[in-house]
Structure formats: C-alpha cells, structure tokens
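Milestone M4 deliverable, item 7.
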Amino acid sequence: MSSLGSHKLFARPLVVLLSLQLAFGSGFFGLVSELPRAEAATGIPTILSYQGRLTDSDGDLLGGASGTTYYFKFSIWDNSSVGSGTKLWPSGSPSSASSTVTSGVFNVNIGDTAAGYPDALDYDFQTNKDVYLQVEVSSDDATFETLSPRQRVTSAGFAINAGTLLGFTPSQSPSASNIPVLNSGNLLLAGTNPQLNATSTNTLTLQGGTGTGDILFFSSSTKITSSGDLTIGGDLTASASTTFGGVAYTWPGADGASGYVLSTDGNGTLSWALDQTGAGAASYWILGGSTLYTTSTATSVGVGTASPSSTLHVIGTLQATGSSTLTDLTFSNATATGNLQTATLNTTGAINASSTLTVTGQTTLGSASSTNFSVSGTISLPAGSIGSSELASSGVTAGSYGSSNVIATITVDEDGRLTSVSTSSISGLTTSEFATTSISQWNNDAGYVTSTTGITAINDLTNSTTSIIGTSNRITVSTSSP
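Output delivered:
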C-alpha cells in the first residue's frame, strides 16, 4: 500500500489498491516484431491498456458514483523497486494523463496519442523481457505519489499469440516451422531455389548490423542473376575476371599511369595503354601496325625541348638515312652552327640552313638559303633559275666591253669565276710600241702613224687618199703594187 499524503481533498492518507490487469491486447502483438520501435502491423495499435482500482486506507472506493478526475504518470523500468534501476521509457520525464475514477475504477490506454495520451509508446519490448511499470497518482496534477512496488509487464491475450506469430515460433536455429530471429549464427534457406521477396515495396535491403558487411557466396558456381538493371551505389570490387556481354575480361594487377586507358589484346586480357584519340586525350599518337603517327595538325613534337616552336623541333642531331620529302625545313642549333647531312633530300618548300648543308646524293629543292652550300657531285640548275640576287656581286655590270679602239681586260679567279672587267683605249702608236723600228708591212684599218725617223712607204689598202708626214718632209706615193 502507498499513501498519497495529505491533500485538500482527503482528510487522511489514501491507499491505492491495484487490482491490475495489464491487458496488452492487440497492441503488444506488434511489439514482438523485429522493429527498432514498438510498432505494430497495419491496423494494430501500439497501446498498453492499464486498468486499476483506487481506494483509501479504509478500503473505500474513491471517485464516487459520478466520477472524479485524477492524474497519472506511467513509465517503464528495468527494476521492480521504486528508486532503483534504469528508466527505459519514455526517453524524457513522463507526462501526466488525466482519467476519471468512478467508484474506484479507472482505465488508461498508455500510448494512445490519438485519444490524448501525451507520450507515444515507442519502447521496443524485444530488447528486455524483464520490464516493470511505474505508476504515479495525483489529485491536483502537481503532487504525485509513486505506487510501490512497480508492476511487472507480462504478456497476455494477443501478446501470447504474437509469441508464436500465428503458430510459428521464433528460433535462432529455424526449421520448417520456425521464424528465423537471429543475433548470431547462420540463416539457412531450404529448397532448390529459395527466394527472398519484398512484398510491400520494390526494394529488398540486405544490411549488416553496423550498416556494413559483405554478401559471401560458397563457391564460384554461385552468382547473382538479374533480369533487370543492377544498380550499385558504392564501389564494385572484382578480384578475378569479369564477364560483360559474354566476354570474360582479365584485369591488370596495378593502376595505369596518368593519361592511360584500358586496352584489350583481342582475347579479353586488359592492359594499360596511352589514350590515342580525342581532343582531350593525354596523347595524340596512334600505333597502326608498324607506323606511329598523329592525326592532329596542332600537335608539336619536341626532341630535347619541352616547348617546341614548330611541328618538329629537334635540339641535337637529326639523321635521315633514307629518302626524305619535306615541305619546309629549318635547320639550326643554339650556336647557329652544325651540319645537316642527307643522302637524298626532296622538298617542295624552303630549306634554311644557318650552317653547312652537305648533300652527297640527289637533292631536289624548291628553294634554299644557306650560309654554306657544299656539293660533292653536280648541281643542275634549270634555265632562269638564278635571279639577279641569287649570286654574290662580282663588280661587273651589265653591258658590252671592247671595240675597234677599246681593248677589254677580263679577270678570273682560281675557280674560273669572273671577278672583274676593265677596258683600254687604242691611241697613237710610237716606235716603242713595235718590236722593231723598221716595219716591212703593216696594215692599219684606221688611225694614223707617226714616225720620227722617216718612213719608206705607206700603202693605203683602200686606195683612198693617204697623208704621209716624214721628219724630212719626203714622201713617196705609189700603188699597192708598185
């Protein structure tokens, strides 16, 4: 018996006699299920029906025939002694609920929030089989008296049926007539093709106790087969070969370098290779048979430099042993010296060499500019191929040299190249200009003859007038055949 203490409604302490019927009814049926809260199947409320009788210390029923309002607080504990144990429900302090006591009898539907009960009964009775109901009573909703001892919650009515779940008993080692309820061990499904079906939704979730875990198969012959789409929200880990579209692929054992893609050998063996296509690819090189090439005209190749300034930029030695056909070739190095040697060189564009260009074979040039152009064989130039600015100036200007009274003097160097041309005019001849002072016959087509010692005879072959001046003023005139 417990006393409510002095109260303005009572002249003496009251005693609450509990003729308690903990009728869990259909509400407890739902608590047997493996749910994290005290939930029930659809249509079955989660309500704990509590009924008692309230009397004073003389055994007189309280509330009268017309009924009186009293206030109750209910909570669930793991110990029967008031003041001991741990409160399991509600999570906070219990709220008071009013109930009309008529002739000592009252009834409270604990957890019936739809009818005004303040606290939802969300305790999971699966977590502890030994639980106790604590009851607190007040006539003014201010001062409460706790009834002692706490009342043990037992199964009854639908709760008994829920213990077998319509005749099937929960078991951690289930057989054909058991419901599997496991917190350890294995779940065994009998039959040739056992199934796990989700009937209320379209999703079947398999999850470990901590939210992580693996789905393990007993042998390589066990597999997941789906006629629809298989969606994986996390990572897919494959430690062996995988089959896609009926083709088994064997994966490389390590990651590839940056810019590499998976490539197959045609037999399902995958390996890492350079990305060969695409504008955003790390490499533009394509290997086709024995040919390595690039299809991008914007690609530059640098040898000895990370910043090529042309399509092919070589710092060092470039050697071509076969026939090379070039549209345009510029050859130089950091010191503007060096050699470019080729057996056969064909170009439709320009060849620019800042140093020596040595050609030992056939060379076809569209145009060439070079500091030194050395050829060990023969250079054949088509007519009109040398312009006014394509040979070095020799100082000889265009025009005609030499006449009847002008003598041209030509200078040639050791290589037979014309270096200069000069002229000399023919003026009066003196005896010093002849081998002897006596000339037996001399033909002079133009000009005149001056003699200081006398002249024997002068014949004018044109039979025209002849003037002869001698130092002694003696002149002999005759024909050409005197």
